[in-house]
């Protein structure tokens, strides 16, 4: 099973700043099968990025994804108050899907 | 619009089974896999497996094999998750989720509480 490790665990930033969230896989991941999700308290997760860099429907262009192999990044520029949430990366290739443990993006 | 609407909260005793339903609408049910993901209180997301509604075939995460069954009813476009031999660690919110370039549409979640 591919293990996904996210860093940092918590990121404290102010609105208007940029956030960089990292996700590392224990073995190489097909970049077509790497996604990011946003979850706010009491809500179901929401797909943000799929295929490493493609924004899901309705996701603003301040969200961007990049990476390949074992290292992937979600960047959120010009943070808005609604962006503060927990973010999970996920690989969905092969016979199992695995999530990272999450990065909490909190208001500083 | 695409919707996945899950059944209501459940309270079960240890050793019992639970069956959660996921009623889909707004898309061709048999064309997209349905996944199940759970989240224990204060914890992260845990993928349980997926089912192909066209064939009925399912793939389960290793940690749940032997205890989980994913089925469907194509006439009612409903997917089901059954988890047996429940223990306290199975207390969680269970989500059904459509697969389409990632997990793109999520149900609202069903809280399952396992308590004696």
Explain briefly what this protein structure is:
The complex is a heterodimer of chains A (108) and B (116). With 108 residues, chain A is an all-beta fold.
How would you describe this protein?
The complex is a heterodimer of chains A (108) and B (116). Chain A is globular, with a radius of gyration of 13 Å. In chain A, strands 2, 4, 5, 6, 9, 10 and 11 form a seven-stranded mixed sheet that branches. Chain A has a four-stranded antiparallel sheet with strand order 1-3-8-7, with no helix packed on it. The model of chain A has no long low-confidence stretch (mean pLDDT 96). The termini of chain A are far apart. Chain A contains no helices and eleven strands. Helix content of chain A is 0%, strand content 49%. Chain A is mainly β and 108 residues long. Chain B has 116 residues and is mostly beta strands. Chain B is built from no helices and eleven strands. Chain B has strands at 3-6, 10-12, 18-25, 34-39, 46-51, 58-60, 68-73, 78-83, 92-99, 103-106, 110-114. In chain B, the strands form two sheets. In chain B, strands 2, 4, 5, 6, 9, 10 and 11 form a seven-stranded mixed sheet that branches. In chain B, strand 9 and strand 10 form a beta hairpin.
Name the biggest interface.
A-B, 25 and 20 residues
Q: Main β-sheet of chain A: number of strands, strand sense, barrel status?
A: 7 strands, mixed
Strand content range of chain B: over 45%
Oligomer: heterodimer
Order of helices and strands of chain A: EEEEEEEEEEE
The averaged pLDDT of chain A comes out at 96
- DSSP summary: helix tally of chain B: 0
Please tell me what the overall shape of chain A is: globular
Instruction: Work out the radius of gyration of chain B.
Output: 13 Å
| DSSP strand count of chain A | 11
Derived structural class of chain B: mainly beta
């Amino acid at each position: 099973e591919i293990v996904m490790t996210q860093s940092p665990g918590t990121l404290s930033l102010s609105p208007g700043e940029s956030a960089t969230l990292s996700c590392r896989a224990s073995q190489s991941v097909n970049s077509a099968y790497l996604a990011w999700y946003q979850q706010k308290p009491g809500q179901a997760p929401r797909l943000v990025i799929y295929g490493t860099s493609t924004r899901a429907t309705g996701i603003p262009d301040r969200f961007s994804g990049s990476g390949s192999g074992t290292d992937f990044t979600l960047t959120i520029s010009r943070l808005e108050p609604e962006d503060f949430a927990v973010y999970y990366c996920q690989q969905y290739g092969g016979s199992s899907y695995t999530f990272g443990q999450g990065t909490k993006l909190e208001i500083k | 619009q695409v919707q996945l609407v899950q059944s209501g909260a459940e309270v079960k005793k240890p050793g019992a089974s639970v069956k959660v339903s996921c009623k889909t609408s707004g898309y061709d049910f048999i064309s997209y896999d349905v996944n199940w993901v759970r989240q224990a209180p204060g914890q992260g997301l845990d993928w349980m497996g997926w089912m192909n509604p066209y064939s009925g075939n399912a793939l389960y995460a290793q940690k749940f094999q032997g205890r989980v069954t994913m089925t469907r009813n194509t006439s009612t476009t409903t997917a089901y998750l059954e988890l047996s031999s429940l223990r306290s660690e199975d207390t969680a919110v269970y989500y059904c989720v459509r697969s389409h370039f990632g997990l793109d549409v999520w149900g609202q979640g069903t809280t399952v509480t396992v308590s004696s």
